[in-house]
Design brief:
single chain, 524 residues, alpha+beta, D-Maltodextrin-Binding Protein, domain 2, Dipeptide-binding Protein, domain 3, 11 helices, 21% strand, globular
């Protein structure tokens, strides 16, 4: 597993006492696909100030990709799953978590969890969701390529004698519910292309139909949501022409979106960390004093504003500041400063002894090999910015821009001094992969990293800020991993069409039943 592999989570539910007819399915919808009404929209006279919607609501998808939520990995289909499937929990826009299909839960030690599912939840085929359905979904997800890494901490998942979910972890984690946004499907349907879900809409071919048995009112929402296949190259034009009504994307992901229509933009935080890493086995940067000096040449503010278009949170420490566990703005001692760099160079033994314009380490010349993969233009630009700042201050850096295969090989072999890394962390902010697992490319051997990580996961709510500070400060002081930013994603909608939306990393359509969608012509 290498940087920027998606790490995802599991779903859970609990037992219902069913009446004799509780599982009787409602009639299956086999109605033909409704025709989208004709739209005769006038030309937009002043696109700078005026936006109109048509009379249908459409979203993009990929017809040829899997529509099974536990197996499908296409990003656009993954987004629409939020309308059709639900998990026990979901993330909030600020990376907290809230229950969805979970009725209540408890744990005394952060290891053994018991959970009850919401009462009376129905699948789209009319049957009532049971605890067995939820456990089936969790165990299917544990065996899937898509979710296995997220759920590796589960040692057992079953249904207890009292009908509650019984889930046991390999170690204490009081943030475990944050990873339980895994879609719940009906037991036995894991191999189906479109297994029954419990969400506000059900799949009906090339459109979604409002689920009449959904627990919340859908009166403020379209009865039908149309699915349109749009290539990545045509997304901006399709949105601007109102062929699709919602567009979610990573602004640093390489898509060149030129939207020529006034629209509304909503940001949400993610667990996607961009960082600079050092190889502890490489000469010069194996010295903590050198790393502490180089830390002061990472200009987070410039990278966020100039390269990521401010669609990111600068992060002095390794935990996302969106969690609210520390005041990032108050930690100036670890920020960009040429003055601090020069002061720390003296402490580290970095000096230009031969007056050639480059610093020597203990009077010996050195060159640092800095590697970055070329698949992300934003990440590449950030690496170039850091390399230039270091070169300008006398550090002899060679930036090697590699294909992903070359980059992966260099990381595995340890043939580098520095690397630009990116990883989507699990929502409980477990850094095990970076500190001691498959992403430990810096060859960290210090067990204090893992101890502090485990202490944070095992911290009660009242102790979490203290544990976070201990981890943040230790990582910042050792400076093997230098956090730069946490990426944000965007959701675009046409002006005046959608209100009440609060998208999150778990689900672009989070809380969709509380949205209002106005298809009467937009707003001035």
């Amino acid at each position: 597993m290498f940087p920027l592999k998606k790490l995802t989570a599991a779903a859970i539910a609990l037992a219902l006492v069913l009446s004799g007819c509780a599982n009787a399915p409602e009639p299956v919808d086999d109605e033909p696909e409704p025709e989208a009404p004709e739209t005769n929209l006038p030309e937009i006279e002043t696109p700078e100030t005026y936006s109109k919607a048509d009379s249908v609501f459409s979203i993009n998808y990929v017809r040829s990709a899997s529509l099974n939520p536990l197996r499908g990995t296409n990003i656009y289909n993954d987004q629409l799953f939020g309308l059709v499937y639900e998990g026990l929990f979901e993330l909030t826009p600020d990376l907290g978590f809230r229950p969805v299909l979970c009725g209540d839960w408890s744990t005394e030690d952060g290891i053994h969890y018991t959970m009850a599912i919401r009462d009376g939840v129905r699948f789209h085929d009319g049957s009532v969701m049971t605890a067995e359905d939820v456990i089936y979904s969790i165990n299917e997800a544990r065996d899937s390529a898509k979710y296995s890494s997220r759920l590796e901490m589960i040692s057992y998942a079953g249904v207890a004698a009292d009908g509650r979910l019984d889930i046991r972890l390999k170690r204490a984690d009081y943030q475990f519910p944050a990873v339980l946004d895994v879609p719940v499907i009906k037991s036995g349907t894991g191999e189906e292309d479109r297994p029954p879900g419990t969400g506000p809409y059900k799949m009906m071919g090339s459109y979604l139909s409002a689920f009449s048995s959904y627990r919340d009112s859908l009166d403020a929402l379209p009865k039908t949501i149309y699915l349109k296949e749009v290539s990545s190259a045509m997304l901006a034009e399709s949105f601007s022409e109102r062929d699709i009504d919602l567009l979610s994307f990573d602004p640093a992901g390489g898509l060149n979106l030129n939207i020529h229509l006034v629209h509304e933009t909503r940001y949400f935080d993610t667990t996607d960390l961009l960082y600079l890493g050092f190889n502890c086995s490489s000469r010069v940067v194996d010295d903590i004093l050198v790393r502490r000096a180089l830390l002061r040449l990472v200009n987070r503010d410039a990278i966020v504003s100039d390269i990521y278009g401010s669609a990111a949170r600068r992060s002095t420490f390794i935990l996302n500041p969106a969690l609210g566990l520390y005041d990032d703005s108050a930690q100036g001692g670890y920020n960009y400063s040429r003055t601090d760099f020069q002061r720390l160079c003296l402490v580290a033994g970095l000096e230009d002894t031969d007056l050639d314009g480059y610093l020597e380490y203990s009077a010996a010349p050195f060159t640092l090999r800095f590697i970055v993969n070329t698949e992300s233009e934003a990440k590449l630009s950030a690496a170039r910015r850091i390399a230039t700042d270091m070169q300008n201050m006398g550090i002899n850096v060679t930036l090697d821009e590699l294909t992903y295969a070359q980059y992966e090989a260099a990381l595995k072999s340890g043939n580098f001094a520095m690397y630009m890394g990116e990883v989507q962390l699990k929502a409980d902010f477990d850094f095990t992969a970076l500190f001691s697992g498959s992403l430990n490319f810096g060859k960290i051997k210090d067990t204090e990293y893992q101890r502090l990580n485990d202490e944070l996961l095992a911290a009660l709510p009242e102790d979490r800020a203290r544990a976070a500070e201990a981890l943040d400060m230790y990582v910042a002081e050792d400076a093997v991993i230098i956090p730069i930013l946490y990426k944000q994603r965007l959701v675009l909608t046409h002006l005046g069409v959608v209100s009440g939306a609060e998208p999150s990393q778990s689900n672009v359509y989070s809380g969709f039943s509380s949205w209002t969608v106005d298809l009467k012509g937009g707003a001035k």
